[in-house]
């Protein structure tokens, strides 16, 4: 796959924009997933994932063709996510009680996917719980956990992607795991 | 029971698949005796399984198209080159057409002298061919790059290419009159005559056979 991608990138470098569509097609799910797990919101995730591909295209000349493209692309995506998280001042939480109601929180304001069968709802709820807990992690732990367990990168790849020393990556993964364990052990 | 602090470190080493054989042995031995650490270890593994179980989500529809629409415009040259690559048949056809037009145009250019079919009683004056009054011209008359003035009579068809025909009140043509002006009509005229010739050859061939 890397060879196809490299070939397409060479075409892009020559100015062939259409070759980039194939690159986007190959990585769109991965990049979207990183963004979604980092941001916990599909809309924002799509926005940032698109931005990541756009940045990668604009800066394609600075990509070292001898390196792995995915590492470079994921780095752009995670950095954009971290920027977004830092900028974002959440003005409301879904958990917060809605004023003037008795015990209703924002979750009840969201249209539920009622068409889903019962057993699907249960697994969906679990998915949401997990995602919520991932979203609650401080971003430095969140990025390593997402790359390690959702993108299944090796510790070395994570260290390259995030431009962090291997030791730091390990420490963050350990702390991230412990933090998640505290939240998820009774699920 | 107070567990040694390094046990948790060993657990993480194990989860990172970077534990040494020595540490692993120590960890295993400890876990067998310590329920608390066993739970801790189990919870860590469960957490990882849960995180990994989050279903693989896909990018929204039209994601690629949206990204492509946001990219800055590419250089024109590449677009043209790609168009040629993606439409080989059209490229070949248009190339053929260009060459064709070239040859047609050049033969059109060469053809700019007045030419007239050879009938003895046609009179040529400058750019004008005249069928004199009272004369009867037999056979088809073709005038190229000039006008035709008919004062007498023509027994046959009249074709005027790149010119005009004037019919005097006394003039008379027994066959059809055709004027060809533009290059395309001229071309069409050639195709038609070629086709007619072909049909003629074909038909005579048939009749020959029948004989």
From TrEMBL, chain A:
Q: Fetch the NCBIfam families from UniProt.
A: PRK09641.1, sigma70-ECF, SigW_bacill
Q: List the PROSITE patterns.
A: SIGMA70_ECF (PS01063)
Q: What is the lineage of its organism?
A: Bacteria, Bacillati, Bacillota, Bacilli, Bacillales
Question: What are the alphabetically sorted keywords of the record?
Answer: DNA-binding, Sigma factor, Transcription, Transcription regulation
Q: Name one Pfam family in it.
A: Sigma70_r2
Say if the entry is tagged with keyword DNA-binding: yes
Entries under PANTHER family matching the protein:
RNA POLYMERASE ECF-TYPE SIGMA FACTO, RNA POLYMERASE SIGMA FACTOR SIGV
Gene3D superfamilies the record matches: 1.10.1740.10, Winged helix-like DNA-binding domain superfamily/Winged helix DNA-binding domain (1.10.10.10)
Similarity remark: Belongs to the sigma-70 factor family. ECF subfamily.
Taxonomic source organism: Cytobacillus firmus
Q: Name one GO biological process term.
A: DNA-templated transcription initiation
Q: What is this protein called?
A: RNA polymerase sigma factor
